[in-house]
From TrEMBL:
One of its GO terms (molecular function) is hydrolase activity. PANTHER family: AB HYDROLASE SUPERFAMILY PROTEIN C4A8.06C, ALPHA_BETA HYDROLASE. Signal peptide: none annotated. Transmembrane segments: none annotated. This is Esterase. Keywords: Hydrolase. It holds the Pfam family BD-FAE. It comes from Jejuia pallidilutea.
């Protein structure tokens, strides 16, 4: 009989330990940001250009916006905004609203269409700043490889008010 009691206590202890560990894992797994995918910011010649937003859940005040333009290399002819969502998530976890933006690639639209597309995304995001909690006076653009080149062009084009290049 004592062994049965010990077994029951052992099961109870194991159950409690399991619940504590499971609860801790569940708490850790909760996202500190909200994702919104496939938001159309412009339609050009029947093609919808979209962006994905990553917004920190703690919006006690308007937050700076970092636009991750494509973040893909590919000589302006391949890649898409979904390739580097991890970068957006990392920035969102640090308190920045991030937007990963699609733009028309060079084999579809000649230069300077790519700059114009990203500028249109910035205008759209600024117009909807209140809806998403964006501080429209603090906008930065960044990218990787051809996306970085495009970010530099957008930030220095003369048509980009209040934009910082990261």
């Amino acid at each position: 009989m004592p062994s049965k009691v010990m077994l029951n206590q052992g099961v109870k202890i194991e159950t409690v330990v399991f619940l504590i560990l499971f609860g801790a894992v569940s708490l850790y797994a909760q996202k500190s940001y909200e994702e919104q995918f496939d938001i159309t910011y412009m339609t050009v010649e029947g093609t919808e250009l979209k962006l994905d937003l990553f917004i920190p859940k703690d919006l006690s005040k308007p937050l700076p916006l970092i636009i991750v333009i494509g973040l893909h290399g590919g000589a302006w002819i391949k890649g898409n905004r979904k390739n580097f969502h991890r970068a957006c998530i990392g920035l969102a976890e640090r308190g920045y609203i991030t937007a990963s933006v699609s733009y028309r690639l060079a084999d579809v639209a000649p230069f300077p269409a790519q700059i114009q597309d990203v500028q249109a995304a910035i205008r759209w995001l600024k117009f909807h700043a209140d809806k998403y909690g964006i501080d429209s006076s603090k906008v930065a653009v960044t990218g990787f490889s051809s996306g970085g080149h495009l970010a530099a062009l957008v930030a220095t084009s003369g048509n980009s008010e209040h934009i910082c290049l990261l």
